[in-house]
């Protein structure tokens, strides 16, 4: 008999890839075991792009709600939108006959969690990062159980909430590991050339894009190619650089089939969002982590330290990088095979490949039971 038959889970996961991709992973694991899932996503372009290819899952859009600072004049607008979303979610949950609600982070999760709590449903939040943001600290008020990706995050939540360490779910498409040669061919790369994959997150990272563009002549001269996922909004800006350096690699705006990107490279260069780190660990990829310098409470630095301290990755502060040293440091690292091997081993030890199943088990146990 299917594990989750007759259980109907709402997953609020819109706004960024870091929320949406783990939500998709949970929904896929849940439906494989006979459950029904409804994913609430935002109206942003990134949500529309990231949800393509998952026709077996049910998505519904709801407005994004960003909470302003206390005492801001925008607070009245936020509260009005929140109340509207709250009652909209109550109606949707009754129509869907929801049995539980899971928020994957961000203020888009707040109204669904509050609505679920008001209907007496078991409510959960998942926090991927090492330090929870303002949204999930608020969302914890509406959740009976808190699920975290890193043990380091657990003490940030009230002792009155049950906290369980489950890891961060890996989306199903990423879990299917393709071959390296096939993956390089997928992007039109040379199959026998060392490859650096660069990804600034689902929406890109402008400073990293600048550094990579400036480094293309050095990569081309060294016989190293780059797979550069620059973000959909910046693709046109960087195309001329690849036209001038056609042997330096390939430029991609948004990568739907990111499993090929991970499999294609010997070395990854990324921000240190929790979802990216989870996927890099799953692929055992040596990585250079460049934390976003303006992340809330510097949580991307803390995320990166979880991987850099045991030498699974290198943490390069953005302020230390410039157009003169960036390519030199990357080329030295990709040629250091013993260092890359040690980093891959460290990544393997940090991976939690069954996080989706762990999330589903916790949610299922609480439905109809102790919450």
Secondary-structure map with pairings?
Layout: E1 8-12, H1 17-32, E2 36-41, H2 45-51, E3 58-61, H3 75-96, E4 100-103, H4 110-118, E5 123-127, H5 134-139, E6 145-148, E7 162-165, H6 180-186, E8 195-199, H7 206-222, E9 225-229, H8 235-244, E10 249-252, H9 258-264, E11 267-270, H10 274-282, E12 287-289, H11 299-308, E13 313-315, H12 326-334, H13 337-350, H14 355-366
Parallel strand pairs: 1-2, 1-4, 2-3, 4-5, 5-6, 6-7, 8-9, 8-11, 9-10, 11-12, 12-13
Helix pairs in contact: 1-2, 1-14, 3-4, 6-9, 7-12
Please, could you describe this protein's structure?
With 371 residues, the chain is of the alpha/beta class. The protein has 2 domains: 8-170 and 353-366, 3-Layer(aba) Sandwich (Rossmann fold), CATH 3.40.50.2000; 180-350, Glycogen Phosphorylase B (Rossmann fold, 3-Layer(aba) Sandwich), CATH 3.40.50. Helices cover 42% and strands 15% of the residues. It has 14 helices and 13 strands. It has helices at residues 17-32, 45-51, 75-96, 110-118, 134-139, 180-186, 206-222, 235-244, 258-264, 274-282, 299-308, 326-334, 337-350, 355-366, and strands at residues 8-12, 36-41, 58-61, 100-103, 123-127, 145-148, 162-165, 195-199, 225-229, 249-252, 267-270, 287-289, 313-315. The protein has a 7-stranded parallel β-sheet, with helices on both faces. The longest helix has 22 residues, at 75-96. The protein is globular. The mean pLDDT is 92.
């Amino acid at each position: 008999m299917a594990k989750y038959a007759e259980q109907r889970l709402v997953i609020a996961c819109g706004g960024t890839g870091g929320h949406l991709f783990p939500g998709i992973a949970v929904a896929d694991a849940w439906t494989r075991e006979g459950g029904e899932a409804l994913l609430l996503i935002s109206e942003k372009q990134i949500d529309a792009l990231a949800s393509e290819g998952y026709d077996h899952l049910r998505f519904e859009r709801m407005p994004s709600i960003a909470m302003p600072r206390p005492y801001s004049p925008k607070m009245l607008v936020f509260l009005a939108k929140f109340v509207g979303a709250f009652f909209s979610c109550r109606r949707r949950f009754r129509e869907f006959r929801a049995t539980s609600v899971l928020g994957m982070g961000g203020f888009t999760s707040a109204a669904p969690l509050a609505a679920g709590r008001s209907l007496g449903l078991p409510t959960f939040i998942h926090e991927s990062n090492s330090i929870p943001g303002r949204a999930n600290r608020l969302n914890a008020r509406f959740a009976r159980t808190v699920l975290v990706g890193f043990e380091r995050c657990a003490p940030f939540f009230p002792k009155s909430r049950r906290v369980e360490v489950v890891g961060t779910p890996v989306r199903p498409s990423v879990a299917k590991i393709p071959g390296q040669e096939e993956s390089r061919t997928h992007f039109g790369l040379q199959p026998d050339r060392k490859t650096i994959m660069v990804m600034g997150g689902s929406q890109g990272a402008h400073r990293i894009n600048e550094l990579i563009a400036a480094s293309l002549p050095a990569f081309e001269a060294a016989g190293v190619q780059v797979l550069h996922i620059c973000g959909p909004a910046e693709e046109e800006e960087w195309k001329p650089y690849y036209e001038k350096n056609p042997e330096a690699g390939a430029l991609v705006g948004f990568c739907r089939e990111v499993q090929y990107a991970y499999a294609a490279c010997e070395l990854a260069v990324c921000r240190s969002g929790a979802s990216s780190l989870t996927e890099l660990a799953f692929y055992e990829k040596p990585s250079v982590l460049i934390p976003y310098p303006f992340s809330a409470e510097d949580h991307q630095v803390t995320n990166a330290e979880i991987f850099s301290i045991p030498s699974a990755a290198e943490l390069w502060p953005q302020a230390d990088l410039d157009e003169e040293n960036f390519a030199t440091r990357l080329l030295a690292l990709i040629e250091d095979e013993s260092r890359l091997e040690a980093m891959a081993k460290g990544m393997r030890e940090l991976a939690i490949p069954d996080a989706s199943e762990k999330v589903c088990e916790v949610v299922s146990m609480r439905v109809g039971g102790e919450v």
